[in-house]
Amino acid sequence: MKRDERRQQIIDLLVENGVVDLEELAKRFAVSKMTIHRDLDELEAGGLLRKVRGGATIEAGMQFESDFRLRERQGSEGKERMALEALELVEPGMTVMVNDGSMAAMLGSMLPRKKPLTVITNNASILEALKFEKGIDLIALGGMYSSKFNGYFGVLAEQNLTSLRADLAFLSSPAVSGNQVFHMDADVIRVKKAMLNAAVKACLLVNHTRFDRVALHVLANLDYFDWVITDQVPEPNVQQQLVDAGIQLTIARSLENT
């Protein structure tokens, strides 16, 4: 098996399982552990995974988030349910902001169902999906493109947001702990904060597996958001923390009930 094919299969295993074991990979591909180490080093250098003791993962860490291309392949059913739940908050004629991320990209693709709308975004997938949609006034924030997050960030995006206002902002996060929402990237967090400041109301979209996690930078307190939507009921300790903080959590309905 060629090197690139082996590395692609490692990525496929990570998308399926979230983690891989170094020894199991060596046996699976009939190569040495040093060869697998080199594969993982190269993939980590490309921002596709995070090496951990004995293997690798694509799960978010304090300062790591996996590449957009991997995240968009994960949990599509849960993302669809959350997107449909979030779509219920949108009314024709609104101005809405949508941030970067694969969850947000799925919501963005559904927005034409509520047109006419004005959509403000830094999400490259949403810009691509909506650029020819009649009834959608599309405002691209501009800035420096990040392939890792498939979005636009930096001073230009932040400055543009200071002169814009929206009825509703949809934001996503890889980490929520207690009453705080986090992200691991400084450029991303600045744009998200600017969106929060530019919107009358805000909705947080967060996968249930991202609760009880922290990342390097604090985005906001949970009570800053008017709605918090997730795909499944989180662990009991997380539920209690949310109750203690007075946070109303919305569990996205099953697709059969939408």
Can you walk through the features of this model?
GO terms for molecular function: DNA binding; DNA-binding transcription factor activity. InterPro entries: Carb_Metab_HTH_regulators, DeoR-like_C, DeoR_HTH, NagB/RpiA_transferase-like, Tscrpt_reg_HTH_DeoR_CS, WH-like_DNA-bd_sf, WH_DNA-bd_sf. Keywords: DNA-binding, Transcription, Transcription regulation. There is one protein chain. This protein has 258 residues and is α/β, with parallel strands linked by helices. It has two domains: 3-59, Arc Repressor Mutant, subunit A (Orthogonal Bundle); 75-257, Rossmann fold. The chain contains ten helices and 15 strands. It has a seven-stranded parallel beta sheet. It has a three-stranded antiparallel beta sheet with strand order 1-3-2. The chain has a three-stranded antiparallel beta sheet with strand order 10-11-13, covered by helices on one side. Strand 2 and strand 3 form a beta hairpin. Helix 2 (22-29) packs across helix 3, helix 6 (102-110) runs parallel beside helix 7 and helix 8 (155-162) runs parallel beside helix 9 (186-198). The longest helix has 15 residues, at 3-17. The radius of gyration is 19 Å and the shape is globular. The termini are far apart.
Descriptors for this entry?
258 residues; alpha/beta; Arc Repressor Mutant, subunit A; Rossmann fold; 2 domains; seven-stranded parallel sheet; three-stranded antiparallel sheet; 15 strands
Shape: globular
- Helix fraction bin: 25-40%
Q: Under CATH, the topology of the largest domain is which?
A: Rossmann fold
The total of beta strands comes to 15
**CATH classification class of the largest domain:** Alpha Beta
Order of helices and strands: HEHHEEHHEHEHEEEHEEEHEEEHE
- Model regions low in confidence, pLDDT < 50 over at least 5 residues: none
Rounded to an integer in angstroms, the radius of gyration calculated over CA atoms is 19 Å
- The CATH architecture of the largest domain can be given as 3-Layer(aba) Sandwich
How many discrete domains? 2
- Largest sheet, if any? 7 strands, parallel
Count of discrete alpha- or pi-helical segments spanning 4 or more residues: 10
Gap from first CA to last CA? 45 Å
